[in-house]
Specification:
Layout (H helix, E strand, L loop, with lengths): L7 E5 L5 E4 L7 E2 L8 E7 L2 E7 L10 E7 L3 E7 L3 E8 L7 H5 L2 E10 L7 E8 L12 E6 L4 E8 L18 E7 L3 E7 L2 E9 L3 E9 L4 E3 L2 E3 L10 H10 L1 H22 L2 H15 L2 E5 L5 E5 L11 H14 L1 H15 L18 E2 L19 H19 L9 H14 L20 H20 L3 H21 L24 H6 L6 H14 L13 E3 H8 L5 H17 L9 E3 L5 E3 L16
Parallel strand pairs: 17-21
Antiparallel strand pairs: 1-2, 2-3, 4-5, 4-10, 6-7, 7-8, 8-9, 9-16, 10-15, 11-12, 12-13, 13-16, 14-15, 17-18, 19-20, 22-23, 23-24
Helix pairs in contact: 3-4, 4-14, 5-6, 5-7, 6-7, 7-8, 7-9, 8-9, 9-10, 13-14
Length: about 625
């Protein structure tokens, strides 16, 4: 990968089981939040110790030299050298979006291989040390215990908090402190424990006879609390134990990594064909992050729920306006995962607590999915002024319509038609000229007469019309299309700037904003907005383009990665698309803040404004839908 990646993915499974290198791989490893998740990796060549990963206990231990780092959709491969050997370490988290089981199984691989480079034979051993930070929120918050595990044909040790208080809290900048971490080796190795950076740690050492295969695994026992019930992860739905999952993972390593390579190679080729090499790198880097911001569980009825965590932006779970931008990846590869994001919203909207005629914002705060968190007081009073009525109604209906398209079926939507009809009426009543409301870009504050939000309302009404057409309700569908056309004409008449672009708000002449919601008009071929609309917008974006992207709107110089690629996808030719997508690549390539891909940064400096590791990066895949 030619990009200087902002952070290196190492172990990436879900919002809790997460290890990254934000600087050099020779320095400390961290959780996506930036809190330390200290791991150390060393090799012993003829008895002499060399360091290759994470924390180093002594300055006297020499580092291996990093020769190269290669990243694809599921793997991070690092090549190290010294005067004796070339060491290849390949971390793989096989979160295949087209396979629910692998997208859920909490086992991440590390394969180590070496070759002699000095023409001599060497005795080589490899050793990993994993600190208590992987099983505690912060070091010292509790006491970590470890036990040797008897797993067939493996050497394994497990570590966990001595006080197992499962699902006892929720939050954003917090980490798991229940369940059990497993460090395992296929074959025979040596287990021990040590002190690592002042912390308790488990170690596993193996002779490196050309290669060795390790597994990092985590059994969280119960994964999500959903409307008062504790749910287990999808991988456990047939009663499988973590020990069985580890054995299985070792046995199917070749098959799984082959599937991963096939998927990644196909993704890279398609991204290059529809964009360019830099666009392909954006998608390859983002996929593991997007998948690992979710947890796949099964509810008591047997339904799959794919619960997102709104990472580093308050920790909400099953957030509608986070699902909306992330949807392209799942529409392309597996609509069942997107359905799993929508089911909790629909079930919660049908409870007595939700009394509004518009869609909720979220269904809880990860991992407690018991009712909306955003804009809700401690005594469960929902503040209307902190809701996003047009935003969330539009998001939900658009996504239902998009699922019908990808599945060529209305089976999923039919049980929810009464609620969708209610939300469409809300859009008809308030969507043409939205009142002073929040939208998904809520960090920018309330805004009345938001033109882009009006476009979302229009596309929501269109989405419902398209659903009804599939159901054979053609008269009602046509009435909705006529309403959409009337609203579009009104918008075009009232919001046009003198240069042919369109305003941020109806009452703010000559302003601009990214009209990313219009992408559905292009994708669906509904042609509500004329070519001059798109031409005027793209030309304005070119004028507003800064070194690292186009600002979100006239108010600030910050931008959003997802919306930047959505508007880039409105371009008629690849050169214009690359003009915008390349600017995003450049932002990550130069960004001084080294964190898992942020989606909110300044377009003039590439400095991070906020957010990291969010699933909204699934929106970068939208160009592949054209």
């Amino acid at each position: 990968m030619k990009m200087r990646i902002p952070a290196t993915p190492i172990v990436n499974i879900d919002p809790y089981f997460s290890v990254w290198c934000e600087k050099s791989v020779l320095e400390n490893t961290v959780h996506w939040t930036g809190s330390p998740n200290t791991i150390s990796g060393d090799v012993f060549i003829d008895g002499k110790e060399y360091h290759f990963l994470g924390f180093k206990d002594s300055k006297e231990i020499p580092n291996m030299t990093v020769e190269s780092t290669y990243i694809d959709a599921f793997s991070t491969e690092i090549i190290y050298t010294n005067e004796n050997i070339r060491l290849k370490i390949r971390f793989t988290s096989p979160l295949l979006p087209n396979n629910l089981y692998y997208a859920s199984r909490p086992v991440s691989y590390c394969k180590a291989e070496y070759e002699n480079t000095d023409g001599k034979e060497h005795s080589v051993k490899i050793k990993f040390a994993v600190s208590e930070e992987l099983v505690l929120n912060l070091k010292g918050e509790g006491r970590a215990l470890s036990y040797k595990e008897e797993i067939k044909d493996c050497t394994a040790v497990k570590m966990g908090n001595g006080n197992q208080n499962i699902l006892w809290r929720s939050g954003d900048n917090v980490r798991i402190d229940w369940g059990w971490f497993y460090l395992a080796l296929k074959g025979v190795g040596v287990i021990d424990h040590t002190v690592l950076n002042g912390m308790y740690a488990v170690t596993l050492e193996a002779e490196l006879k050309n290669s060795a295969l390790f597994a990092f695994a985590y059994d969280d026992i119960d994964s999500i609390e959903y409307l008062g019930e504790r749910l287990k992860a999808y991988w456990r739905k047939d009663g499988k134990t973590i020990e069985e999952a580890i054995i299985e993972a070792f046995n199917d390593y070749d098959e799984v990594t082959s599937l991963c390579k096939e998927f990644s190679d196909k993704l890279e080729a398609e991204a290059k064909a529809k964009g360019n090499e830099k666009y392909a790198e954006l998608l390859l880097l983002s996929l593991r992050q997007v998948m690992a911001a979710h947890k796949l569980v099964v509810d008591k009825k047997g339904n799959n729920l794919y619960i997102s965590k709104e990472c580093m932006s308050n920790g909400c779970a099953a957030t509608v306006d986070v699902t909306y931008p992330s949807a392209p990846l799942f529409l392309i590869y597996n609509t069942e995962l997107l359905k799993g994001m929508l089911r909790p919203v629909m079930e919660y909207a049908d409870t007595d607590e939700w009394t509004f005629d518009f869609a909720p914002h979220d269904v809880g705060r990860y991992p407690l999915v018991n009712g909306q968190h955003y804009g809700v007081s401690s005594d469960r009073v929902i503040d209307y002024n902190k809701q996003m009525p047009v935003e969330e109604c539009g998001n939900m209906i658009i996504l239902f319509s998009a699922i019908c398209d990808r599945d060529n079926s209305t089976d999923f939507v039919e049980p929810y038609l009464d609620t969708i009809d209610k939300w469409s009426k809300y859009l008809i009543k308030y969507g043409l000229d939205p009142e002073n409301q929040l939208c998904t870009d809520d960090f920018a504050g309330h805004l009345a007469h938001n033109v882009n939000l009006s476009i979302k309302a229009i596309m929501g009404i269109v989405g419902y019309s398209r659903i009804l057409n599939r159901l054979g309700e053609n008269k009602k569908a046509e009435e909705l299309m006529e309403t959409s056309k009337e609203y579009t004409k009104s918008l075009l008449d009232r919001a046009k700037n003198s240069d042919g672009s369109y305003r941020l708000a109806y009452d703010k002449p000559e302003t601009f904003s990214l009209k990313y919601n219009a992408v559905w008009d292009k994708l669906w071929g509904t042609n509500l907005f004329p070519e001059e609309f798109y031409k005027g917008e793209i030309e304005r974006y070119k004028k507003e383009l800064l070194p690292y992207g186009v600002p979100l709107d006239s108010r600030e110089k910050y931008t959003k990665s997802d919306w930047l690629i959505w508007v880039a996808s409105l371009c008629e030719n690849n050169d214009d698309f690359a003009l915008f997508s390349d600017s995003l690549w450049s932002a990550y390539n130069t960004m001084r803040t080294r964190v898992p891909m942020t989606d909110w940064y300044f377009a003039d400096t590439s400095e991070m404004k906020g957010f990291r590791h969010r699933t909204v990066q699934g929106g970068l895949f939208i160009k592949l839908m054209f």
